[in-house]
Amino acid sequence: MTTHMQDNRQDLRIERFAAGLDGDAPDARTLGWFEAVSFGFYDKKPDPADVAAYTKAYGADRRVLWGAYDDSPRPGVWDNQVPVATYATMVNTLNVGGGRLMDTHLITAVTVRATHRRRGLLRRMITDDLKHAADQGLAMAALTVSEATIYGRFGFGAATFTREVEIDVRERFGLRAPATGSMELAEPASLQELAPELFNRFHIRVPGSIGRQASYALRVSGRWSQDSAAEDKALRAAVHYDGDGRPDGYVSYRFAGWENKPYTVKVIDLVAASQAAYLELWRYLGSLDLMERIQFPLCPEQDPLAWGLTDSRGYEVKAGEDVLWLRVLDPVTVLQTRPYVHDGACTVRISDPLDICGGVYRLTVQDGRGTVDRLASDADVDAVVPVDSLGSLFLGGVRARTLAAAGHFSGASEETVDRLDSLFATDTAPYCITHF
Ligand SMILES: CC(=O)SCCNC(=O)CCNC(=O)[C@H](O)C(C)(C)COP(=O)(O)OP(=O)(O)OC[C@H]1O[C@@H](n2cnc3c(N)ncnc32)[C@H](O)[C@@H]1OP(=O)(O)O
């Protein structure tokens, strides 16, 4: 599909397409698109053989790629098959709590060439895309961000958070709980099938989890490296089995090298289908001979490991990070899909800078089920809730009381804030270990 965009310097052609192959090689448009993405994220120029492999995985994901093309390039300027802006979307599921999975519109690979920045290219693409996704019946959009300052204006709010941690695994490492089940070293390649199976059990169990694109199984099994489609020979993996000998978790990891002291293992992926498996995977990591430190950037904020160590000071939080940013497209559907722990009701005006879902809505929760009615635009409201704040509230990753104290709900009474706080509270903090 092709549309045009009037830039202040030229007419840009915007194309939407699926990544494609020409024989065994990527077609010119696909290769150009990958080149632009690599440039945008300061990566090295991609190898065509790698792009051919990525193209197949993108097909499995049903990704839609966007490119904005300059058809009047000047001499010396990059090949016009390389877009000046890129963007991509796909649909996967979000666990909204209570084991409910909701189709969600995922946005990724957003880049605008340095020479074309701040002329509204991103604004144009994301506005068109979100409106189109809403028209298609998708109720939620999501992305992960490179900078926290970009996407709030488009209605996205940070919704899940992780901790980057370092665990001291010298003599002080130990866990309070007795060991359960057993661990085995795994041939990483075996994870290509096992990893998605175990991830799906994690995904249904953990609110905030996003389903994974095809590349995950290839990377965590070492079939692909982090930055190419060549085998990752440094990757190691281990699997945990429950008392009945059934696999219930895996970890894949890499040694940081003898030149790095203290000797460190970097966890690439750690997926536990059960709570018990989570601690057991850490017990295994803590038992690795010669290793002194384990690094993992994706621990949950409420981390059982921090409370499971016999010496909790061996657990060091290096940074806190937001992972998933959510953008509500259809408040009725999303609020009726998630579960609730407290009954109550509240009428809010959702303010939406892109005018996709702004309006007055009444949420009524009874016996844990939410019902949402859209009211007339002049109906009395208890609070005005910006749509990005609603994205942050949705999974319970931040309390309404905290957002109110930060000035998100101007004019809301304390009683309203208490009600919002109670309505949006969840019993489990959301946790997302998928980047896309
Ligand atoms: C989901 C993902 O892929 S996250 C990755 C995002 N990409 C990157 O970080 C790669 C490097 N950066 C870029 O390629 C570009 O700078 C982009 C994509 C972030 C922005 O593209 P642009 O076309 O310059 O944005 P555009 O001109 O449409 O700006 C839209 C608005 O966002 C603001 N904005 C854009 N980028 C930034 C930024 N980095 N920080 C703060 N504000 C920003 C603009 O000021 C503008 O604000 P306004 O319309 O409210 O006045």
TrEMBL record:
Binding site for acetyl-CoA: V110, T111, V112, R118, R119, G120, L121, L122, R123, S146, E147
InterPro entries (alphabetical): Acetyltransf_17, Acetyltransferase_Eis, Acyl_CoA_acyltransferase, Eis_dom, NAcTrfase_Eis, SCP2_sterol-bd_dom_sf
Enhanced intracellular survival protein domain: residues covered: 334-432
The entry's keywords: Acyltransferase, Transferase
Keyword match Oxidoreductase: no
DNA-binding recorded as keyword: no
Record-annotated active site: Y151 (proton donor), F436 (proton acceptor)
SUPFAM superfamilies recorded: Acyl-CoA N-acyltransferases (Nat) (SSF55729), SCP-like (SSF55718)
Record-annotated Eis-like acetyltransferase domain positions: 219-318
Assembly with partners or alone: Homohexamer; trimer of dimers.
HAMAP family: Eis
Family per record: Belongs to the acetyltransferase Eis family.
Record protein name field: GNAT family N-acetyltransferase
UniProt organism field: Arthrobacter sulfonylureivorans
